[in-house]
Sequence to fold (389 residues):
Amino acid sequence: MERLSILGATGSIGTSTLDVVSQHPDRYSVYAVTANTNVEKLAGIADAFNAKVAVVADKKLYGSLKEALKAGGCDAKAEAGADCIVGVAEDSHADTVVGAIVGAAGIRSSFAAAKAGKKLLLANKESVVCGGKVLMDLVRNSNALLLPVDSEHNAIFQCLRGATPLMKEKARIILTASGGPFLHRESLEDVTPEEATHHPNWSMGKKITVDSSTMMNKGLEVIEARWLFDVPQDRIEVIIHPQSIIHSMVEFEDNVVMAQLGSPDMRNTVAYCLAYPERINAGVAPLNFAKVRQLTFEEPNLKKFPLLALAYEALDRGGYACIRLNAANELAVEAFLAGKIKYTDIFKICEPMMLSAPSENPKKLEEIIEADEEARILATEFISGFIGE
Fold:
Protein backbone atom coordinates (compact mmCIF):
# COMPACT_ATOMS: atom_id res chain seq x y z
CA MET A 1 0.00 0.00 0.00
CA GLU A 2 1.58 3.28 -1.15
CA ARG A 3 0.93 6.14 1.27
CA LEU A 4 0.38 9.61 -0.21
CA SER A 5 0.60 13.17 1.03
CA ILE A 6 -1.33 15.42 -1.35
CA LEU A 7 -0.27 19.06 -1.17
CA GLY A 8 -2.98 21.20 -2.74
CA ALA A 9 -5.66 18.52 -2.38
CA THR A 10 -8.58 20.87 -3.08
CA GLY A 11 -7.29 22.10 -6.47
CA SER A 12 -7.73 20.56 -9.91
CA ILE A 13 -4.63 18.31 -9.74
CA GLY A 14 -5.47 17.29 -6.18
CA THR A 15 -9.01 16.41 -7.25
CA SER A 16 -7.71 14.34 -10.19
CA THR A 17 -5.29 12.53 -7.87
CA LEU A 18 -8.03 11.68 -5.39
CA ASP A 19 -10.22 10.40 -8.22
CA VAL A 20 -7.48 8.00 -9.35
CA VAL A 21 -6.76 6.94 -5.76
CA SER A 22 -10.45 6.17 -5.21
CA GLN A 23 -10.35 3.77 -8.17
CA HIS A 24 -7.41 1.82 -6.69
CA PRO A 25 -8.04 1.50 -2.93
CA ASP A 26 -5.94 -1.66 -2.85
CA ARG A 27 -2.83 0.24 -4.02
CA TYR A 28 -3.00 3.70 -2.42
CA SER A 29 -3.92 5.30 0.89
CA VAL A 30 -3.91 8.99 1.82
CA TYR A 31 -1.79 9.98 4.80
CA ALA A 32 -2.04 13.78 4.62
CA VAL A 33 -3.89 16.46 2.66
CA THR A 34 -3.32 20.21 2.53
CA ALA A 35 -5.11 23.27 1.17
CA ASN A 36 -4.63 27.01 1.10
CA THR A 37 -7.92 28.28 2.55
CA ASN A 38 -10.73 25.89 1.53
CA VAL A 39 -11.35 24.43 4.98
CA GLU A 40 -14.71 22.77 4.31
CA LYS A 41 -13.54 20.92 1.20
CA LEU A 42 -10.29 19.91 2.91
CA ALA A 43 -12.15 18.48 5.90
CA GLY A 44 -14.47 16.58 3.57
CA ILE A 45 -11.51 15.07 1.71
CA ALA A 46 -9.74 14.12 4.95
CA ASP A 47 -12.89 12.35 6.12
CA ALA A 48 -13.62 10.61 2.82
CA PHE A 49 -10.07 9.26 2.45
CA ASN A 50 -9.39 8.62 6.14
CA ALA A 51 -6.37 10.94 6.16
CA LYS A 52 -4.31 11.16 9.32
CA VAL A 53 -3.29 14.81 8.90
CA ALA A 54 -5.03 17.85 7.38
CA VAL A 55 -3.16 21.13 6.99
CA VAL A 56 -4.44 24.56 5.98
CA ALA A 57 -1.83 27.10 4.87
CA ASP A 58 -3.54 30.09 6.52
CA LYS A 59 -2.77 29.92 10.24
CA LYS A 60 -5.88 31.98 11.03
CA LEU A 61 -8.04 29.11 9.79
CA TYR A 62 -6.67 26.52 12.23
CA GLY A 63 -9.73 26.75 14.49
CA SER A 64 -12.12 26.53 11.56
CA LEU A 65 -10.35 23.43 10.23
CA LYS A 66 -10.39 21.75 13.63
CA GLU A 67 -14.12 22.44 13.98
CA ALA A 68 -14.87 21.24 10.44
CA LEU A 69 -13.01 17.98 11.04
CA LYS A 70 -14.79 17.43 14.35
CA ALA A 71 -18.19 18.21 12.81
CA GLY A 72 -17.62 15.55 10.17
CA GLY A 73 -16.50 12.98 12.70
CA CYS A 74 -13.01 12.90 11.17
CA ASP A 75 -10.06 11.88 13.35
CA ALA A 76 -7.42 13.63 11.21
CA LYS A 77 -5.03 15.88 13.09
CA ALA A 78 -5.51 19.55 12.21
CA GLU A 79 -2.45 21.70 11.51
CA ALA A 80 -1.93 25.15 10.02
CA GLY A 81 0.83 27.22 8.45
CA ALA A 82 3.44 26.94 5.71
CA ASP A 83 5.92 25.22 8.04
CA CYS A 84 3.40 22.45 8.70
CA ILE A 85 3.00 21.88 4.96
CA VAL A 86 6.77 21.52 4.68
CA GLY A 87 6.62 19.09 7.60
CA VAL A 88 4.04 16.97 5.78
CA ALA A 89 6.21 16.96 2.63
CA GLU A 90 9.15 15.42 4.51
CA ASP A 91 7.14 13.23 6.91
CA SER A 92 8.41 9.65 6.92
CA HIS A 93 4.86 8.27 7.19
CA ALA A 94 4.28 9.00 3.48
CA ASP A 95 6.09 7.34 0.60
CA THR A 96 4.87 9.69 -2.12
CA VAL A 97 4.26 13.43 -2.19
CA VAL A 98 1.96 15.04 -4.75
CA GLY A 99 3.15 18.65 -5.13
CA ALA A 100 0.05 20.39 -6.49
CA ILE A 101 0.23 23.73 -4.67
CA VAL A 102 -0.27 26.64 -7.05
CA GLY A 103 2.44 29.28 -7.33
CA ALA A 104 5.70 29.95 -5.51
CA ALA A 105 4.03 28.92 -2.26
CA GLY A 106 4.83 25.35 -3.27
CA ILE A 107 8.60 25.76 -3.63
CA ARG A 108 9.67 25.00 -0.06
CA SER A 109 7.57 21.84 0.20
CA SER A 110 8.88 20.54 -3.13
CA PHE A 111 12.45 20.99 -1.93
CA ALA A 112 11.57 19.33 1.39
CA ALA A 113 10.10 16.28 -0.36
CA ALA A 114 13.13 16.04 -2.66
CA LYS A 115 15.58 16.34 0.24
CA ALA A 116 13.70 13.57 2.08
CA GLY A 117 14.19 11.28 -0.93
CA LYS A 118 10.48 10.99 -1.70
CA LYS A 119 8.75 9.90 -4.84
CA LEU A 120 7.64 13.40 -5.86
CA LEU A 121 4.77 13.86 -8.30
CA LEU A 122 5.39 17.47 -9.22
CA ALA A 123 2.69 19.70 -10.66
CA ASN A 124 4.06 22.88 -9.10
CA LYS A 125 5.97 24.33 -12.05
CA GLU A 126 7.35 27.23 -10.00
CA SER A 127 9.56 24.79 -8.09
CA VAL A 128 11.45 24.01 -11.30
CA VAL A 129 11.16 27.48 -12.88
CA CYS A 130 12.66 29.10 -9.78
CA GLY A 131 14.64 26.13 -8.44
CA GLY A 132 16.25 25.07 -11.69
CA LYS A 133 19.58 23.31 -11.28
CA VAL A 134 19.46 23.64 -7.49
CA LEU A 135 16.34 21.47 -7.29
CA MET A 136 17.52 18.92 -9.85
CA ASP A 137 20.87 18.51 -8.07
CA LEU A 138 19.01 17.97 -4.79
CA VAL A 139 16.81 15.30 -6.40
CA ARG A 140 19.88 13.43 -7.66
CA ASN A 141 21.85 13.74 -4.43
CA SER A 142 18.91 12.59 -2.27
CA ASN A 143 17.97 9.67 -4.54
CA ALA A 144 14.48 11.14 -4.84
CA LEU A 145 12.29 10.29 -7.83
CA LEU A 146 10.78 13.35 -9.51
CA LEU A 147 7.93 12.58 -11.90
CA PRO A 148 6.41 15.52 -13.81
CA VAL A 149 2.61 15.67 -13.67
CA ASP A 150 2.11 18.44 -16.25
CA SER A 151 0.78 16.72 -19.38
CA GLU A 152 3.54 18.14 -21.61
CA HIS A 153 6.48 17.15 -19.43
CA ASN A 154 4.87 13.86 -18.57
CA ALA A 155 4.61 13.15 -22.32
CA ILE A 156 8.28 14.01 -22.84
CA PHE A 157 9.24 11.82 -19.91
CA GLN A 158 7.35 8.92 -21.48
CA CYS A 159 8.90 9.51 -24.92
CA LEU A 160 12.41 9.61 -23.45
CA ARG A 161 11.93 6.51 -21.33
CA GLY A 162 14.32 3.89 -22.58
CA ALA A 163 16.41 6.34 -24.60
CA THR A 164 20.18 6.04 -24.11
CA PRO A 165 22.16 8.98 -22.65
CA LEU A 166 23.54 9.77 -26.11
CA MET A 167 20.04 9.74 -27.61
CA LYS A 168 18.87 12.15 -24.92
CA GLU A 169 21.84 14.45 -25.47
CA LYS A 170 20.91 14.92 -29.12
CA ALA A 171 17.11 14.89 -28.73
CA ARG A 172 14.92 17.88 -29.52
CA ILE A 173 11.88 18.58 -27.37
CA ILE A 174 8.65 19.76 -29.00
CA LEU A 175 6.17 21.17 -26.49
CA THR A 176 2.61 21.34 -27.77
CA ALA A 177 0.29 24.19 -26.82
CA SER A 178 -3.45 24.41 -27.35
CA GLY A 179 -3.17 28.12 -28.09
CA GLY A 180 -5.83 28.83 -25.49
CA PRO A 181 -9.14 30.63 -26.06
CA PHE A 182 -7.65 33.54 -28.03
CA LEU A 183 -5.64 31.69 -30.65
CA HIS A 184 -7.53 33.30 -33.55
CA ARG A 185 -8.83 36.42 -31.82
CA GLU A 186 -7.40 39.52 -33.46
CA SER A 187 -7.39 42.02 -30.59
CA LEU A 188 -6.66 41.16 -26.97
CA GLU A 189 -7.05 44.67 -25.54
CA ASP A 190 -10.60 44.08 -24.24
CA VAL A 191 -10.23 40.52 -22.92
CA THR A 192 -12.15 40.04 -19.66
CA PRO A 193 -11.24 37.78 -16.72
CA GLU A 194 -14.32 35.69 -17.48
CA GLU A 195 -13.12 35.06 -21.04
CA ALA A 196 -9.54 34.33 -19.98
CA THR A 197 -10.58 31.73 -17.41
CA HIS A 198 -12.45 29.49 -19.87
CA HIS A 199 -10.09 27.04 -21.55
CA PRO A 200 -11.35 25.26 -24.69
CA ASN A 201 -9.89 21.84 -23.75
CA TRP A 202 -8.67 21.59 -20.16
CA SER A 203 -10.30 22.05 -16.76
CA MET A 204 -7.79 23.99 -14.63
CA GLY A 205 -7.62 26.64 -11.93
CA LYS A 206 -8.05 30.32 -12.82
CA LYS A 207 -4.39 31.34 -12.63
CA ILE A 208 -3.05 28.57 -14.83
CA THR A 209 -5.94 29.05 -17.29
CA VAL A 210 -5.03 32.73 -17.70
CA ASP A 211 -1.39 31.69 -18.14
CA SER A 212 -2.47 29.29 -20.86
CA SER A 213 -4.34 32.07 -22.66
CA THR A 214 -1.29 34.39 -22.62
CA MET A 215 1.04 31.46 -23.41
CA MET A 216 3.06 32.31 -20.32
CA ASN A 217 2.20 28.81 -19.16
CA LYS A 218 4.06 27.47 -22.19
CA GLY A 219 6.95 29.82 -21.51
CA LEU A 220 7.24 28.48 -17.97
CA GLU A 221 7.10 24.96 -19.39
CA VAL A 222 10.06 25.77 -21.66
CA ILE A 223 12.03 26.78 -18.56
CA GLU A 224 10.90 23.61 -16.79
CA ALA A 225 11.86 21.39 -19.72
CA ARG A 226 15.33 22.88 -19.83
CA TRP A 227 15.98 21.67 -16.25
CA LEU A 228 13.82 18.55 -16.00
CA PHE A 229 15.45 16.98 -19.04
CA ASP A 230 18.81 18.80 -19.05
CA VAL A 231 18.24 20.11 -22.58
CA PRO A 232 19.43 23.58 -23.72
CA GLN A 233 16.68 25.96 -24.79
CA ASP A 234 17.83 25.98 -28.42
CA ARG A 235 16.61 22.37 -28.58
CA ILE A 236 13.19 23.17 -27.09
CA GLU A 237 10.47 24.18 -29.54
CA VAL A 238 6.82 25.15 -29.01
CA ILE A 239 4.16 24.25 -31.57
CA ILE A 240 0.45 25.12 -31.46
CA HIS A 241 -1.79 22.05 -31.51
CA PRO A 242 -5.40 23.15 -30.84
CA GLN A 243 -6.84 19.66 -30.33
CA SER A 244 -4.63 18.92 -27.28
CA ILE A 245 -4.42 15.25 -28.27
CA ILE A 246 -0.64 15.12 -28.74
CA HIS A 247 0.68 16.20 -25.36
CA SER A 248 4.26 16.70 -26.55
CA MET A 249 6.92 15.09 -28.74
CA VAL A 250 10.61 14.25 -28.88
CA GLU A 251 12.64 14.31 -32.10
CA PHE A 252 15.74 12.11 -32.12
CA GLU A 253 18.96 12.39 -34.13
CA ASP A 254 17.56 10.31 -37.01
CA ASN A 255 14.68 12.85 -37.29
CA VAL A 256 12.18 10.28 -36.07
CA VAL A 257 9.59 11.88 -33.78
CA MET A 258 7.95 10.08 -30.87
CA ALA A 259 4.70 11.53 -29.54
CA GLN A 260 2.48 10.74 -26.58
CA LEU A 261 -1.25 10.98 -27.32
CA GLY A 262 -4.32 10.85 -25.11
CA SER A 263 -7.53 12.58 -24.14
CA PRO A 264 -7.02 15.96 -22.41
CA ASP A 265 -7.61 14.67 -18.88
CA MET A 266 -5.09 15.12 -16.08
CA ARG A 267 -6.10 11.83 -14.49
CA ASN A 268 -4.05 10.08 -17.19
CA THR A 269 -0.78 11.77 -16.19
CA VAL A 270 -1.50 11.44 -12.47
CA ALA A 271 -2.16 7.71 -12.87
CA TYR A 272 1.03 7.25 -14.90
CA CYS A 273 3.09 8.94 -12.19
CA LEU A 274 1.39 7.10 -9.33
CA ALA A 275 1.94 3.66 -10.83
CA TYR A 276 5.32 4.31 -12.48
CA PRO A 277 6.94 2.26 -13.91
CA GLU A 278 3.67 0.34 -14.32
CA ARG A 279 0.42 1.62 -15.86
CA ILE A 280 -3.05 1.64 -14.32
CA ASN A 281 -6.49 2.65 -15.54
CA ALA A 282 -7.31 6.27 -14.74
CA GLY A 283 -11.00 6.07 -15.56
CA VAL A 284 -10.52 8.11 -18.74
CA ALA A 285 -12.37 7.06 -21.90
CA PRO A 286 -10.14 5.64 -24.67
CA LEU A 287 -9.07 7.98 -27.44
CA ASN A 288 -11.40 7.61 -30.43
CA PHE A 289 -9.39 8.51 -33.54
CA ALA A 290 -12.48 8.40 -35.75
CA LYS A 291 -14.00 11.21 -33.69
CA VAL A 292 -10.74 13.17 -33.47
CA ARG A 293 -10.54 13.10 -37.28
CA GLN A 294 -7.69 15.60 -37.62
CA LEU A 295 -4.62 16.91 -35.81
CA THR A 296 -3.46 20.39 -36.82
CA PHE A 297 -0.37 22.44 -36.01
CA GLU A 298 0.87 26.01 -36.42
CA GLU A 299 3.73 28.16 -35.19
CA PRO A 300 3.07 30.42 -32.19
CA ASN A 301 2.59 34.11 -32.92
CA LEU A 302 5.22 35.72 -30.66
CA LYS A 303 4.02 39.21 -31.48
CA LYS A 304 0.55 38.34 -30.24
CA PHE A 305 1.84 36.23 -27.33
CA PRO A 306 5.11 37.96 -26.33
CA LEU A 307 5.31 36.31 -22.91
CA LEU A 308 6.49 33.10 -24.57
CA ALA A 309 9.49 34.89 -26.08
CA LEU A 310 10.12 36.57 -22.73
CA ALA A 311 10.50 33.17 -21.06
CA TYR A 312 13.22 32.15 -23.54
CA GLU A 313 15.00 35.42 -22.81
CA ALA A 314 14.74 34.81 -19.07
CA LEU A 315 16.49 31.47 -19.54
CA ASP A 316 19.31 33.25 -21.38
CA ARG A 317 19.68 35.76 -18.56
CA GLY A 318 19.78 33.25 -15.70
CA GLY A 319 17.93 31.97 -12.66
CA TYR A 320 17.16 35.31 -11.06
CA ALA A 321 15.50 36.50 -14.27
CA CYS A 322 13.27 33.40 -14.24
CA ILE A 323 12.34 34.06 -10.60
CA ARG A 324 11.50 37.70 -11.37
CA LEU A 325 9.44 36.74 -14.40
CA ASN A 326 7.48 34.13 -12.47
CA ALA A 327 6.73 36.46 -9.54
CA ALA A 328 5.76 39.38 -11.77
CA ASN A 329 3.43 37.19 -13.80
CA GLU A 330 1.80 35.70 -10.71
CA LEU A 331 1.02 39.13 -9.28
CA ALA A 332 0.03 40.62 -12.64
CA VAL A 333 -2.46 37.79 -13.26
CA GLU A 334 -3.83 38.34 -9.77
CA ALA A 335 -4.31 42.04 -10.55
CA PHE A 336 -5.96 41.22 -13.88
CA LEU A 337 -8.39 38.77 -12.27
CA ALA A 338 -9.24 41.45 -9.72
CA GLY A 339 -10.07 43.87 -12.55
CA LYS A 340 -7.22 46.25 -11.69
CA ILE A 341 -5.28 46.00 -14.96
CA LYS A 342 -5.97 45.10 -18.58
CA TYR A 343 -5.13 41.72 -20.06
CA THR A 344 -2.36 43.18 -22.24
CA ASP A 345 -0.85 44.89 -19.19
CA ILE A 346 0.40 41.52 -17.92
CA PHE A 347 3.25 41.59 -20.44
CA LYS A 348 3.91 45.29 -19.80
CA ILE A 349 4.50 44.43 -16.15
CA CYS A 350 6.47 41.22 -16.66
CA GLU A 351 8.98 42.53 -19.22
CA PRO A 352 10.62 45.35 -17.18
CA MET A 353 10.56 43.20 -14.04
CA MET A 354 12.43 40.39 -15.79
CA LEU A 355 14.89 42.73 -17.48
CA SER A 356 15.79 44.32 -14.13
CA ALA A 357 16.97 41.01 -12.65
CA PRO A 358 20.68 40.38 -12.06
CA SER A 359 22.25 38.02 -14.61
CA GLU A 360 23.19 35.34 -12.11
CA ASN A 361 21.96 32.02 -10.73
CA PRO A 362 20.96 31.25 -7.13
CA LYS A 363 22.96 28.48 -5.51
CA LYS A 364 20.70 27.31 -2.68
CA LEU A 365 17.06 27.29 -1.58
CA GLU A 366 17.46 30.23 0.78
CA GLU A 367 18.68 32.42 -2.08
CA ILE A 368 15.74 31.31 -4.24
CA ILE A 369 13.20 32.14 -1.52
CA GLU A 370 14.88 35.48 -0.80
CA ALA A 371 14.91 36.37 -4.52
CA ASP A 372 11.24 35.44 -4.87
CA GLU A 373 10.26 37.54 -1.86
CA GLU A 374 12.26 40.52 -3.18
CA ALA A 375 10.71 40.09 -6.62
CA ARG A 376 7.21 40.17 -5.13
CA ILE A 377 7.93 43.37 -3.24
CA LEU A 378 9.27 45.02 -6.39
CA ALA A 379 6.40 43.69 -8.52
CA THR A 380 3.80 44.89 -6.03
CA GLU A 381 5.31 48.37 -6.05
CA PHE A 382 5.55 48.36 -9.84
CA ILE A 383 1.94 47.23 -10.27
CA SER A 384 0.71 49.85 -7.79
CA GLY A 385 2.47 52.55 -9.78
CA PHE A 386 1.20 51.03 -13.03
CA ILE A 387 -2.41 51.11 -11.81
CA GLY A 388 -2.01 54.69 -10.65
CA GLU A 389 -0.84 55.94 -14.04
Notes: Residues 193 and 337 are 5 Å apart (CA to CA).
